[in-house]
Amino acid sequence: MTEKRRKATALTYDQKKSVAPMITATGKGLVADEIIKRAKANDVPILEDASLVELLAELNINETIPEELYQAVAEVFSFVYHADKQMQRKE
What we know:
Blueprint: E1 7-12, E2 22-28, H1 30-41, H2 50-56, H3 70-90
Antiparallel strand pairs: 1-2
């Protein structure tokens, strides 16, 4: 039995620069591990969603997400927003 390689994708969204969120990093295996390691080191909330990562991993770095993924990615950003608020309360 072979173990499936881990995948990770990082997103950013700046309303002033782009109409939609963009892919800032994507990779699998060791690259995915590094993306996750850097996110944790910088207190960036991590949401695990294998189906969404599969779709986002097909995109290129600096590519905006397609309209059909807006709802799913909006849920990710909502998760991040709430996680940030919780961290601020703890500090």
